[in-house]
Amino acid sequence: MLLAGDVGGTNTRLGLFAAAVPRPSPVEVRTYATDGFPSLESMLAAFLADAGVRPTAVQGAAFGVAGPVVHGRAVLTNAAWQIDAAAVAASLGLPSVDLLNDLIAMAHAVPAITAAEQRTLQEGRANPDGNVALIAPGTGLGEALLVHSGGTLVPSPSEGGHADFAARTAREAGLLAVLTERFGRASYEHVISGPGLVNIHRFVHRSPCAPVDPDAADAAAHISAAALELRCPACVEALDLFVAILGAECGNAALRGLTTGGVYLGGGIPPKILPALEGRTFLDAFRAKAPMEHLVAAIPVHVIVHPNPALLGAAVAAAMQVARARR
Asked: Contact, 141 vs 103, CB < 8 A?
């Protein structure tokens, strides 16, 4: 058995998987409220008890966490937990566990994603020896590069979401000016994220928006719904700007990493706005990379629609951990 987890500030999803390479098979998956437990170790004990599995049955474990991981330790961004990989391993009776940033966990899932678990925006011609990019807009903007090395894709962390937002049009330049005035510096995360969509919404609305309260916790979901249902012209413009800037940044990532193996969109937002991504706006911005249009036009682009790729990726990482130990 492999033990995997997607540890979030609000909820944590844990899974037991049958060991297999390249894709472990889920046996038991449960979700727990993170603040319902004092630590990851106590939650794992409860999960294994609920599943009727003894810790000795677990051969390897890996966990994706919503926060930075430094020297095997992580502090959750939106919860009080401090996680120490050595302490978690000791609680499970394992020599070690892998503690990964949740985006890197998601990146581990990319090679295991099936055709049914993705939606293709651009077919392209995948280079089997090429690098791959992962762009994941959600509460924030995560980016990762999977480097092709030794016949496998190796996830490499990135903080590309915090890179400077580069405007391409007069309208985007106006947005950049507003964001710079507000934040002092505008990053891509200020635009391509849930809060970023709210920032765009505030920019395009000259008058109050009937369908959306921009101060609501779920404002981004209401903005995209109002846009997709054509209930508010300004919301339509806001989502169109969001999609165009997302397409441009995906093209940027493709160029920076020479990701001829493909570009994958993950995170919570892309599956929810698929109709907008499947229009011309996204790909027009993705391909507008003169003099490299021919390069990006040949790169496959997919949206991950697997329900929890970070959990799957953590299981993949656990399987790799076991394989390394056996060697």
From this structure: no
Q: What is the pLDDT of residue 326?
A: 78
User: Please, which contacts does 220-225 make with residues 24 or more away whose CB atoms are closer than 8 Å?
Assistant: 220/194, 220/195, 220/269, 221/194, 221/272, 223/197, 223/198, 224/197, 224/269, 224/272, 224/273, 224/276
Read off the pTM. Answer: 0.93
- Is the pLDDT assigned to residue 98 strictly greater than 90? yes
Each residue's pLDDT tens digit, 314-325? 999 999 888 887
**Is 22's pLDDT higher than 80?**
no
Using CA atoms, how far apart are residues 245 and 276, in angstroms rounded to an integer? 13
Phi-psi domain of 145 (left: phi exceeds 0; alpha: psi -120 through 50; beta: other): beta
Angle at CA of residue 95, ends 313 and 76, nearest 5°: 50
State the Cα–Cα distance between residues 135 and 141, nearest whole angstrom: 7
**b or e along 130-148 (b: 16 or more beta carbons within 10 Å of the residue's beta carbon)?**
bbbbbbbbbbbbbbbbbbb
Q: Which residue from 176, 114, 105 is spatially nearest to 142, judged by alpha carbons?
A: 105
At 200-228, the pLDDT tens digits run 999 999 888 988 999 998 999 999 999 99
Q: Is the dihedral of CA 54, 56, 59, 62 positive or negative?
A: positive
